[in-house]
Amino acid sequence: MKAYLSPLDELMTRSVASSTDRPAWLRARTGGVTATEVAKLAKGGPGVQAELVTMKLSGELEEDLSHLRYIRWGQIREEYIGEWVERRFNIQPNQVLFRGENPRHLATPDGVGCDFDERLLVCEIKTSLHDLDPALTFGHYRTTLYADQKQWQLHVTGAQRALFAWEQHDDDWSGWPDRGPAPVLPEPEWRWVERDEERIAHLVKVADRFLVALDEAAAGKVAEFDVELDVLGQEVIQHRASEGAAKRAKDASWKALQERLVLLPSFSQSGAARVTWSPSVTEVVTSTVPDDEAAVEADPVLFAAFVDARAAWEAHLAGFTKPVESSRVTPAKLTVTPMKVEKKGVADVF
């Protein structure tokens, strides 16, 4: 008789690597698609896909960004927030990379666990100077990749819900690295995120399309190396370095000019350079705008009728829809970055 496996035990049979061994964890991610990667692919255009294919085939491991203070602070606080989540929701901290039904669909949720009905749960933890509440219609959360990341984690693990826990801080780095920014609230904030099967299906299509491109590139179905493009790319990098120095020098001279002229009236001088200066002038300009308060006060009955009519019209209009075609243009994207000297082999990537 086959032994019973809880959903959590079954998930552990699909473990691939642990981030405690970062190089092995990064190598294990190379041949598949992770939550962060599929979110970037879904948001970006063909250029994002091409860039990710190149990175994976180059054999380069992802850059360790823990030297950046906001990344390091997130890592420090993740341990505390993970312990809080475990006490509150019985979801254990996780560092394991899991594979899905498709073994190249990969994810490392920040926490995994089960509810009282033995339904599998995952957790994602973030820190930010912004309020990351997913319920805010126009909040900062909407500008991030977090929603797609969680849906992908749900897809890979088979979990039913994802707990999103976040800690907002005051962005005061004056004591860094001895002291980080202070949390805005005494405890982390959280919300449950349910599975969105429609979005998951879209992300699966995005991921599988990328994997086809990755396999074709690995099989050699890519353009031959273009020496001229490489030379032009190197020139861009060289000029970019001198451009930065020139801009800093220009900005310093511009600031010095402004400081010399700020207290002078209008000024003009022609030598090797023509310098003209006009100081700022503040003047009061009167314009006419509608006075809503006065209009309502003059005829409150008319205004009340207008409000009622508008509400009735909006309710009526909601019952009528029609299909409208629209187009979205993904702009061309060119990136040129220096290649790292050290390269790692690409054998046994897949």
UniProtKB/TrEMBL annotation:
<dbReference type="InterPro" id="IPR011604">
    <property type="entry name" value="PDDEXK-like_dom_sf"/>
</dbReference>
<feature type="domain" description="YqaJ viral recombinase">
    <location>
        <begin position="25"/>
        <end position="160"/>
    </location>
</feature>
<dbReference type="InterPro" id="IPR019080">
    <property type="entry name" value="YqaJ_viral_recombinase"/>
</dbReference>
<dbReference type="Pfam" id="PF09588">
    <property type="entry name" value="YqaJ"/>
</dbReference>
<dbReference type="InterPro" id="IPR011335">
    <property type="entry name" value="Restrct_endonuc-II-like"/>
</dbReference>
<protein>
    <recommendedName>
        <fullName>YqaJ viral recombinase domain-containing protein</fullName>
    </recommendedName>
</protein>
